[in-house]
Amino acid sequence: xxxxxSVDIDDEELLHRFPNHNVQPFxxxxxxxxxxxxxxxxxKDVINMxxxxxxxxxxxxxxxxxxxxxxxxxxxxxxSFKDLVDTQRCLVISNGFYEWDSKSKKPYFIHSKDNPLxxxxxxxxxxxxxxxxxxxxxxxxxxxxxxxLSKIHHRMPVILDEGNESRWLDPNxxxxxxKELxxxxxxxxxxxxxxxxx
Length: 198
What we know:
The protein is mainly beta. Helix content is 10%, strand content 35%. Strands 3, 4, 5, 6, 9, 10 and 11 form a 7-stranded mixed sheet that branches. Strands 2-1-7-8-12 form a 5-stranded antiparallel sheet, with no helix packed on it.
């Protein structure tokens, strides 16, 4: 599960990685939590969305707190996600995420060894509230943890390898053609350390 992450973004690196997007400086949030709002990357746009997906067919917004993550193994089975995987993929930009040791309950920070950005694979939805206002929300796709993270937890976000951003975001690529991108990041690319509080 990914329930907290950090948004302490290197703006120059962001511009370098996404030269065709209208990128504005990110507000620094070291403890980004569900229901908070963040600029989310689509194929050509950067749009503010709230964390916690509300399916377009939902009668109210209570789904949001339940759908901060989407298990990669069941994306094509769950009604909340199966209609999104082909055309409503997104990237969630971060510099690292937090996970709690399932035994000690102590928090760890997990980040890239060599890259200032971590791009999590996500899905987004557009939901209409009772006032006919569009609410955009997103979820982060998770997968079984790699060996490094499995020492403390069994799940992790899908972290996209650099260079695959366009493939993931392009809605012309159906899910079957890009599903190999959904995999645990290589152990050599991340490191983690225990922290006191977040």
